[in-house]
Amino acid sequence: MSASALFGTYARSGLEFDHGEGVWLVTKDGRRFLDCGSGIAVNSLGHSHPHLVSELKAQAEKLWHVSNLHKVPGQERLGERLCAATFADKVFFTNSGAEAMEAAIKTARRYQYDRGHPERFHIVTFEGAFHGRTIATIAAGGQAKYLEGFGPKAPGFDQVPAGDLDALKKVIGPQTAAIAIEPVQGEGGIREIPTEFLRALRKLCDDEGMLLIFDEIQTGVGRTGKLFAHEWSGVTPDIMAIAKGIGGGFPMGACLATEEAAAGMVPGTHGTTFGGNPLAMAVGNAVLDVILGEDFLADVQKKGLSFKQKLAGLADSHPKILDSVRGTGLMLGLKCVVPVAEFVGAAREAGLLAVPAGDNVMRVMPPLTISEEEISEAVARLETAALSLEQKLTLEGAAE
Hints:
Elements: E1 17-21, E2 24-27, E3 32-35, H1 38-41, H2 50-60, H3 73-85, E4 90-94, H4 97-114, E5 122-126, H5 135-141, H6 144-147, E6 157-160, H7 165-171, E7 176-181, E8 184-185, E9 191-192, H8 195-208, E10 211-215, E11 239-242, E12 253-257, H9 259-262, H10 278-291, H11 296-317, E13 322-328, E14 331-336, H12 340-349, E15 352-353, E16 355-357, E17 361-364, H13 372-399
Parallel strand pairs: 3-15, 5-6, 5-7, 7-10, 10-11
Antiparallel strand pairs: 1-2, 2-3, 4-12, 8-9, 11-12, 13-14, 14-17, 16-17
Helix pairs in contact: 2-10, 3-10, 11-13, 12-13
């Protein structure tokens, strides 16, 4: 077998899927896997959702791309709907979460520049954060494993421990433009940021003339049982980056902002060739049609609570494999005792797909459309995985 022509940037599983049906992925040889990774929190409505397929097909037969030199009706409609459902007044559409964060960073810096403070360009972020893979967003995340080998860290980003208000206050100064945070750290291990800390950030920003940026790329669009996770705290940002779930599998993201925060983003300050294209806008509007439907988010909350309780029971039953469960809505994590890669692998062998994260946590993030029956099936498959690892531990112990 010849070597792949692709960059070797992924340790791929070797699985090759032919099609998807709701929360299920099916290989070419007919094996069915329960998808509790959702393409890393992307497939918010599962695979081949009929409404998404219908709207994408209809748009594909009319128009794919015109560029942002012209008015795109789908953008206008989706922008209005996002603003009506959130704190925001303005939206800039992108192709990805990293691009949405880049737009958020530029918007915050431009805000300070327009107020006569070009020296205020630093963004304070938090240890364990993940904001993307571009040169700027790996600097924003600050994690050494993503920075290594790519030259000096881009300037203008200061990291402090999440939840440490004293450390935060020490780094804030005349150089600080904004604070950026994920309401729940996803890549960092499904770590929820306490409401009190988010409120303290809002007050600090108000007192010091800074902007508050929420990265809701993974937490947004219903994942936690609210349209956006910050709604649980009652704290609203000035700028917010979103992606993943809003496209339901189609590449798209957005930067949302208040009128005041976005005032400096005038013609020539930012742009994108593909962002906000008619295909993406058709899908984004279709996703909102479903997620903003009656009782949809309430059902996500109910299913999330049910899933979390079942996972807590699983952890209690297998203390040599699992430590605890964390998270909210359908953004859940299993803190592992064994190396997380081993549990993710065992789950895959049992026919369930999940995603590893920091802090030795396995992310459990199924499509928001998962049923109670499928939740029970997912837990049964995770039980099989835990039992197989327990058996392995027993055999290793006997061998010693």
